[in-house]
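re: that complex we talked abt at group meeting.

here r the seqs, copy pasted straight from the sheet so there may be weird spacing, ignore it
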Amino acid sequence: MPTLTPTFDTGGLSKPVEAVRVDPRGAIDGDALAPGLVDTGLNAGFIADTLSAMLAHERCGVHLYRSVAGRTNNPMLKKKYEEFGRETLEHVTIFEGLITDSGGDPEYVSPAARAVQGSDTKSLESTFMLAGSVDVMTQEMVLLDAVLQAEAMCHANWEVLAQLADVLPAGAVKDRFLAAVGKVEAQEQEHESWARDTKAQLTILQAKSESMAKIGTKAEQLMETVKGWLS
Amino acid sequence: MGLNPLEHRGIPVEDQVKSWSEINPEPYDKDRVDPYTRTRVILMNGIEVESIIFSHQFARMTDNVDIKQKLALSRRIDAQQQKIVNGLNPGDQSPLETTIGYEQVAVDLTAWLARHEPDPYLKQALDFALLEDFDHLYRYSNLYELLDSKKAADITQHLSEITPGRPTVVEHRHPFDDVNGHFETHTVDPLSRLHVMTIVAAEQQTMNYYMNHGAEYVEPIARGLYSEIALIEEEHVTHYESLLDPLDSWLKQLVFHELNEVYLYWSMLQQETDKRIGSIWEEHLDMELGQFHAACDLLRRYEGVEPEEIVPPSLPDTPVTFEPNKDYVRQVLAEQIDLRKNGPEFVPLSEMSPLSQEYQDAVNAGGTPSEQVIDMNREKSGREYRDETEGPNPVVDLRDPATASR
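got the structure back, here u go
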């Protein structure tokens, strides 16, 4: 099982910067971030920080899928969220392997990763902190929107990783990057496309349907409508 | 191995409601109480107040009915627990006597946390404010003798010394200089997190107490001293709360709050000398375990995070302990009396922030109650009040002018 939340107990590491004071036992910087990339002629520290940020996004993705799968009222969407959640968990493992192979430590949380976690946390919070403001049909779209946003970023990350692999000098590190991209990029494209298509599908479905949330409509009725979507 | 809160379910929150008679306990006897029982009561009251205030703040950020209802339920129980704990304070204990108890908490809690704090920056933050609270104990003790002709050592029982620390008159800082850097949530030692949460709650309670009780006095010197020290406590809340990593979500913070309450009730239970009060700590520990699991359920459902991911496998096996810290306080006093702030950095006096110097000049213009109280008590009692059980103050300049030449 990969790490989903680096902590002191998992060996979490970070970089002191601005307001962030890292316990010296968990502080790391410089060449130690990715020793395997130092001889590539590229900015190893920057790449290490970027990989950490991409890994953070995948980790947040696992949390997002667990959350939305547990809260959707539509069985088809639930199934898909669970499937993508399992695949996202695999991506975490692949990222951790990639970082380890580069001589880095997957427990490292870069400043960029903190920013990604901050953004992803707020995105996930937006699916439940204002749940009282939306009806059950709108709530489904809110969950789906969060997934679409997350997958758009995920897909972009893997495309960036593919381009990064292109500029790496020939050798074992480049091969590992290319292998990872080859394994995952198509899946990411599928995730994003599915989210985009499903959003369109549900939007059109509701636009054409007479049942929508109106004052006085019982929640049970709306729930039944949501359950029937995509079936 | 310490307690693993994930393995103990405690009392379900919905079974924790108590009757009026149950939340109105018999107070302790102020003349017979172990001073550290009094400090435990003061600390745990502050911990419950923080829990209630945090929960109210969280509730204002969401309209999710499920979350709001569960927060409301746990919060009502916290409010009942707070009444029980605070109700242990006797009505014949004056606000000033309680205040001396608050400063004994501030001294011996802060010193203990600093002694056990593994992160050097956090330890420095604790040591820094320790010397300031240590000085407050001395100032209030003189007010106590001045107004009531009584000795503060009858309250502290000589377990904490009473002598000047970093003089309150120089503790006034520009607010910018109270903002510190913060720990990093992925690397922070779980013990450090609990330490910071505990001291934030304790200082916040002290700030709240002084800002409300100072106005109950008629004497201008008492009103002035409470106002002055209340503002230092506000500095301390800013100082300590800025050590917390804001990256943690509301739900994670909720889980950490409950975890800290579990740890602290367990800690109080380990050392309580009063059996009756010990049974309260024990019951509250079981209640907090139930509230902790309710918070974990919310985290799991809404954030998809398993509590095991963020909660350490076990709580620290060393309980937070109230005990004398005289040697430690003396050592910090001798070494750090001239430390000051410049932004988030702790610096020598010569590098103190000009902003804070300007601020200090402004607030101290026209006299300072914390200095005046000592002068007034010297005039009334023929000397200032101290309880130096281990010898003269380790800082020569802080020695009692009346005895320094002996």
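couple things i noticed - Residues 5-19+31-398 of chain B form one domain. Strands of chain B lie at 339-342, 345-348.
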